[in-house]
Amino acid sequence: MRAVHWFVTLPLTVVFVIFAISNRQPVEITFWPLPVVVETRLFLVVLLGMVAGFLIGELVAWIGGRRWRRDAREKSRRIEALERELAATQALLNTKSGGSPAQRNDLVKQS
Question: What ranges do the domains of the chain cover?
Fold first, then answer.
């Protein structure tokens, strides 16, 4: 898995560095209704736009996954409750039968 990570990350890093070196021209960014003009490098505009798009996409995906996270929490609570119930039932069987585990298993199968 680590090799796959580096197999993807290293070429992307090289592409981004080459892009940044190739696009150092200054550009002016204006915000139309406001009298604000920002002068910056082209690669910063493009890369920051990509980062902003990525973060917005992650936010949308996180919000969209709330149903699955809620279901997972509910199922986890249900599993914990069932495990507690199982432990209580096993403790009850141990106190009633007092025999070996094989005998208790036979008792459970007969019930």
Answer: 2-53, 76-110
